[in-house]
Design goal:
This protein has about 375 residues and is of the alpha+beta class. The protein is built from eight helices and 24 strands. The protein is elongated, with a radius of gyration of 25 Å. Bound molecules: fe (ii) ion. The site of fe (ii) ion has 4 residues, from loops.
């Protein structure tokens, strides 16, 4: 059973069920009061400026009744905290599931029936899978044009780009991007030339009646980890070398620099970038360049390998949603003379899927 007491510095000492102990500063607690005197009931935002709270604030009374921690502060403020929620916050327990790296060894792809997503439990499951795997496939959705933006907007706002609110992936004359041809596209991330790069791509299949035109996905973070374990030198070059990505058409010239594998200060994966059609490694001495080219070839071969890349076919009435900062996508060549192929795509932000999942899970958690 958890217990609380006050130490000599007027901090609250919590001893949790597993006997771990945490000292809580009075102001840290005071800033978390959630009663209507302190936060707006609609938006949960503070109604006062916490920087101006009395620096000598003290806890003058406290009691623990089950999970409810009641506290009375020296400035007259008082309220009740959920001990469970406080401990979850201290331990940084996140309701968003961790990313699970994957290879081409699925026994079952994460395919969700669109009709069943009106059930919140199924929607949560779909969004959780998306967080873990970085992609999901949706089946049994309308084949109508515009479905992609409708589906996207059920999660959050669409990111409009110079391709428009959505883009039509069909073979057309004089395209401003090779996506709009019938050529095969090796695994790539979209739009690494943008600032910021679109977080999530949704591709809806209206028709896929042509011979060819199968889809592939590959987990950039799983391959980065594989490289880190098996070829340190290649991993270091790809995490340290800047590459310029460019897009141009008659209306605009977009440029952005980035690493093919981007890490944060702690070595965690932030982003995979790969687009052999539009990358220009920055100037380096030839010896360093040779190492970069060799590392890039290595990661390209891994992205295309049977060990990592999954292949499947999107038929009319299906869509796939993938994390464009982690998952690479591609397609096989198709033959326009054998049938019609039409996909529509659009982009949304990470905030949409993550924010929706946080909301749905916090509602469930507080029920
Ligand atoms: Fe693409």
């Amino acid at each position: 059973m958890s217990s609380v007491l006050i130490d000599d510095n007027n901090c609250l000492l919590i001893q949790s069920d597993d006997l771990s102990k945490f000292l809580l500063h009075p102001q840290w607690l005071r800033e978390r009061l959630s009663e209507p005197d302190y936060v707006d009931t609609n938006n949960k935002q503070r109604l006062y400026e916490p920087s101006l709270l009395n620096q000598d604030l003290k806890i003058i009374e406290y009691s623990l009744e089950g999970n409810n921690l009641n506290i009375h502060f020296s400035d007259g403020a008082k309220g009740t905290f959920s001990l469970q929620n406080l401990l979850a916050e201290i331990r940084k327990v996140d309701i968003i599931p961790l990313k699970t790296p994957w290879k081409n060894n699925f026994t079952k792809l994460p395919i969700f029936d669109h009709e069943k997503l009106s059930n919140q439990k199924n929607l949560i499951k779909m969004l959780e899978n998306f967080q873990q795997l970085g992609f999901v496939i949706i089946s049994n959705i309308s084949k109508a044009e515009g479905t992609v933006t409708k589906f996207a907007e059920s999660l959050g706002p669409v990111r409009t780009t110079n391709f428009g609110k959505h883009f039509d992936v069909v073979s057309k004359p004089d395209p401003n991007d090779l996506a709009y041809t019938s050529l095969g596209l090796t695994a790539h991330t979209d739009n690494p030339y943008r600032k910021p790069i679109p977080g999530i791509q949704i591709l809806h299949c209206i028709a896929n009646e042509a011979k060819g035109g199968d889809s592939c996905l590959v987990d950039g973070f799983a391959i980065a980890e594989h490289l880190r374990e098996t070829d340190k030198e290649a991993f270091e070059i790809l995490t340290q070398t800047d590459v310029l990505f460019k897009f141009t058409d008659k209306d605009i010239l977009l440029e952005n620099y980035g690493k093919l594998i981007e890490l944060d200060d702690f070595g965690n994966y932030v982003q995979s970038r790969f687009s052999g059609r539009l990358d220009f490694v920055t100037y380096l001495e030839p010896k360093k360049l040779e190492k970069f080219y060799s590392a890039r070839r290595k990661i390209f071969n891994l992205y295309a390998s049977k060990e990592f890349e999954i292949n499947f076919r999107l038929e009319g009435g299906m869509l796939m949603m993938f994390d464009n900062l982690r998952i690479l996508h591609g397609r096989t060549e198709y033959d326009v003379s054998t049938g019609f192929r039409h996909l529509q795509g659009c982009y949304i932000d990470h905030d949409s899927t993550e924010g929706k999942l946080r909301l749905l899970k916090s509602i469930k958690f507080n029920e």
